[in-house]
């Protein structure tokens, strides 16, 4: 069965960076920064990208490019024996994530529509009521969630070059452009300089062991480690792709977008005296209020900025859902010998069902597991157990199971690139990455 491949190096960078760039950059990174000391958190986060992120990315790249197949076959081919189950773990993880992620992405679609039709107006209580009424509606959030899965499906069925790569070449530049426009508008607001200072001037007195571990966790999740996404995308890389260079470029682009998101949110929030560490309510309750207050003297500009912001969220979410959909689609396409369209339809149907039940669990229906709504449970299961487990097993496999020569040949493209970096990377994968992941595990479960 003939497989697709990325057509250009730019396509590789934009598509793979798009898999990492998502709502976590635009929403989670700013409020995590707000809660953990501003610029000090960013410096620690960047160090964690170097320690954990880039080595972890290269590990998945090695597995995917070596096998040139879906993650199940790739892990089995690289590690032998039962290691293919780690690829299955990644497929299951990404499918569950896509299911509940589509719920939040659907909210972004609804808010984009609401911004276009001027529904996001009034005072703070109105904005709060608007979100409560929408999220508790029995059918509207479900429709938006399924619509987002279907939009993702329409990209995936067109294949690697005509679908994923082409969409990434459109969405990623648009995302950057929208970010820059909103950053400029936000930084020109009265009093915005305080927000810029908070983001760029470190206050190391706020750094605790908890901040260190939060930065480590953010670096881990921001780059999609453990989902088999990077492994799947790497299976479409050309044999001469420089893996270290690609991972570094992707990590830098991902981090740049996260910092720009901070420059978009902090100046506007500080301008109107609103705390930017509002957690999950930030983009649906706090920020609409920020836009209403910050641009109250220029309502037309506020209208445009609101539309651009939610368009930005939709684009960011879509670059992530495309990559998560591709993981399962590639598996069904290659292992069940189905056409790409039929394979994509299977995953779309499964994710749509998960999305509907998750959406109902946070609003219209009492669907709970272990004392959590189904959506919160899916988030907990994937983020705190399945993702770290997948990344930990990947590092163990490459560090201790696969022969050193086999990994060396793939890392260096047969001895042609990055020779001196290989020992550094190997030490990181064998010792630094597993220790970091174990610390994340222990921190998430309250042990440290």
Termini Cα gap: 49 Å
- The helix/strand series, from N terminus to C terminus, equals HHHHHHHHHHHHHHHEEHHH
Q: Could you say which overall geometry the principal axes of the C-alpha atoms support?
A: globular
- Separate helix tally: 18
Radius of gyration over all CA atoms, rounded: 21 Å
Which whole number gives the mean pLDDT? 90
The largest sheet, given as strand count, sense and whether it forms a barrel, is: 2 strands, antiparallel
DSSP strand content: under 5%
Number of extended strands: 2
Kindly report the spatial arrangement of strands forming the biggest sheet: 1-2
> How helix-rich are the residues, as a percent range?
over 70%
Would you spell out the secondary-structure blueprint of this structure?
Layout: H1 9-20, H2 23-35, H3 39-67, H4 71-79, H5 84-116, H6 124-135, H7 140-156, H8 160-187, H9 193-200, H10 209-222, H11 229-234, H12 243-271, H13 282-294, H14 299-335, H15 340-361, E1 368-369, E2 372-373, H16 374-401, H17 404-411, H18 421-444
Antiparallel strand pairs: 1-2
Helix pairs in contact: 1-8, 1-12, 1-14, 2-10, 2-12, 3-4, 3-10, 3-12, 3-18, 4-5, 5-7, 5-14, 5-15, 5-16, 6-13, 7-14, 7-15, 8-12, 8-14, 9-12, 10-18, 12-13, 13-14, 14-15, 15-16, 16-18
């Amino acid at each position: 069965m003939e497989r697709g491949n990325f057509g250009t190096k730019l396509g590789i960078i934009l598509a793979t960076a798009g898999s990492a760039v998502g709502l976590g950059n635009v929403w989670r990174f700013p409020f995590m920064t707000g809660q953990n000391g501003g610029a000090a958190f960013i410096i620690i986060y960047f160090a964690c990208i170097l320690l954990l992120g880039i080595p972890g990315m290269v590990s998945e790249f090695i597995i995917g490019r070596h096998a040139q197949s879906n993650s199940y076959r790739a892990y089995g081919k690289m590690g032998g024996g039962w290691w293919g189950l780690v690829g299955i773990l990644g497929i299951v993880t990404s499918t569950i994530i896509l299911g509940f992620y589509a719920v939040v992405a659907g909210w972004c679609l609804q808010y984009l529509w609401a911004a276009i039709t001027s529904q996001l107006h009034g005072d703070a209580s109105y904005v709060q009521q608007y979100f409560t009424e929408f999220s508790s509606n029995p059918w509207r959030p479900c429709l938006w969630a399924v619509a987002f899965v279907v939009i993702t499906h329409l990209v995936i069925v067109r294949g690697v070059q005509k679908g994923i790569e082409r969409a990434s070449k459109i969405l990623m530049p648009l995302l950057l452009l929208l970010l820059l426009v909103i950053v400029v508008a936000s930084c020109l607001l009265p009093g915005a300089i305080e927000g810029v200072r908070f983001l760029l001037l470190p206050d190391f007195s706020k750094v605790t062991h908890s901040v260190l571990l939060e930065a480590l966790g953010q670096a881990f999740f921001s780059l999609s480690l453990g989902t088999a996404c990077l492994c799947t995308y790497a299976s479409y890389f050309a044999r001469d792709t420089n893996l270290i260079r690609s991972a570094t470029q992707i990590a830098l682009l991902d981090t740049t977008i996260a910092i720009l998101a901070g420059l978009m949110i902090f100046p506007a929030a500080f301008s109107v005296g609103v705390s930017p560490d509002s957690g999950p309510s930030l983009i649906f309750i706090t920020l609409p209020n920020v836009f209403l207050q910050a641009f109250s003297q220029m309502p037309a500009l506020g209208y445009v900025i609101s539309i651009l912001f939610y368009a930005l969220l939709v684009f960011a979410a879509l670059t992530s859902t495309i990559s998560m959909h591709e993981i399962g689609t590639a598996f069904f396409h290659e292992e069940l010998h189905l056409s790409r369209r039929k394979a994509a339809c299977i995953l779309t149907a499964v994710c749509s069902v998960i999305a509907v039940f998750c959406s109902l669990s946070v609003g219209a229906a009492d669907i709970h597991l272990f004392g959590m709504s189904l959506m919160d449970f899916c988030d907990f299961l994937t983020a705190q157990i399945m993702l770290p487990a997948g990344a930990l097993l990947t590092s163990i496999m490459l560090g201790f199971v696969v022969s050193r020569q086999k990994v060396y040949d793939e890392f260096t493209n047969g001895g042609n690139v990055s020779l001196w970096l290989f020992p550094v990377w190997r030490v990181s994968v064998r010792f630094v990455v597993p220790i970091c992941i174990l610390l994340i595990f222990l921190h998430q479960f309250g042990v440290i």
